[in-house]
## 1
Amino acid sequence: MLRTNETPVMDVLPWPNGKGFNGSSEWWEYVMTKDERRRLDNLMGLALLDPDVCDRLLTKRDETLMKAFGLSTQTQAWLRGLQATSLSELAQAIVAKAPQLA
């Protein structure tokens, strides 16, 4: 999987009148999805190595498998809705349709 620099940057000083930097809500959404993306990458990596995990992910869309990787219920539902018959197709669908997890 692709390794990225994930050093968070934030301003710890209070802003006058309670104002912060523009786009703060988008920043925090991005920070919170980084961990979700890591979990999904780990699941996909294991699916590459283990045919049983691959089958549970692709064919059965196994909820217990997704829960074991700590994926949110929103991500689980999203994954179940993706159309894919192979791990490669699933990976392509994830990259194409998941800008919020990138």
## 2
Amino acid sequence: MKKEGKEVVKEIVEFIRNKCNIAEEDVAILIYDPDGRVLRFLYPPDLVDAGTIPINSPDSLAARVFTSGKSFLSNSFQDVKHLSFFTKFTRDKRPLLKLMAVPILKGGKPIGVIEVSSREPTRNFTEEELLSLEQIGEILGEKLEVGL
């Protein structure tokens, strides 16, 4: 990824962290790689080389958000079928309990996904936060170059 793209991602992550009052590793940004038909992590750094997610994966929430273009919010995420593999690469090993995910849009088409999670039982995400995250996904999509 070009330097400008890394700076944009870092600024967006900081903005999300401050707005949602969450830890740095609780934000993930994935971008679509059309050559492999997979999503790959742009953020967090610990997951950049951890692997990719096929967009047709039935167990991946990120893949479902990407292919449907629809946002997702759950405050009981432990009950949602999803890939938990990537939590092995994070410093905090507690399970994800809450999650919001939105498509990153460029020209109205999904080019990636933003996921915001929480491991705190008392932290619930709101519809207002989901709407804000959707707007951030649109802004990020316009700033990122496809084919990073």
## 3
Amino acid sequence: MNFKSQIRLFTLQHFFYSSRYIKLIFLLIFCISNCRLSQEIAKNNLQVETERDKGSFTITEFNASGKKVIILFAPSIWKAEILFEENHSLVPYLAKYGYRVYLVQISSQENHQLKSSEALQEILNTESIEDYDLGGISTGGWHLTQIYKDWPRDRPKARKIFFLATGLDYNYEKSFPILYKEFNLKANFTPYPQYFLDPSLNQYWLGGKIEQIVPRADLDLPQEIPIAFFWGKIDSISPSESIYPVYEKIRNPKLWKELSIANGHSKDYDHGNLLLDQDTKDDVFSEIVSWLKD
């Protein structure tokens, strides 16, 4: 083999080994990156299994760098994605204003009040949180009605609590739980247009069996914590008559806010667009954040 051939062979070998090393380096970077991503997913999407009832609730963390903490309880009749999947959803809106958001989904129908208290304590214990706000969304607000019952004295309570589209007292004719039982018996049912006006929200509708509602006499809403009620004027699931009997009995500082054209909003809100709508972030979520800041 002449000298030129040797040089050519050496060059090819060098290029081959260099390419291998480059590929190895890129593969190593990819693995490190994905390992870090997996760790973040494992940290921010935490499946918590209690000793009493494994898999009874799920906690998902959003915007871990947020300085303020808010803990939301997701509705049982809607997929939780309705709160974070779109850019104009509630969770991204809260994150935009500096909130670290914990979203709790109660998967157990039985003893859901007890499970909500366990979930809240799990968050407080794991993260050593002292200052936080609480929010109940739609039927997720039912989880807050007894959350501080038998609460440990060494655990902090919320700074403020808000309910969005949450009915609490259904002791009236043709209330949502009564009609819903009949509604679920119908074949091929769709909640539009009976429960909300936007058919695109059907993709988020979960339906199914609803949890047991706590009677008004057994409600244990803390009297020392400011509480706000945000409800839609044409909400057929959580109308004003399902909220006001509870609201009027609360002695602590409180807010009663109807989302409607009469109150300066872009529309009269129903149950669906209170949770997700192009105008909701400016009309509804801004009201919530403004109240939390006060």
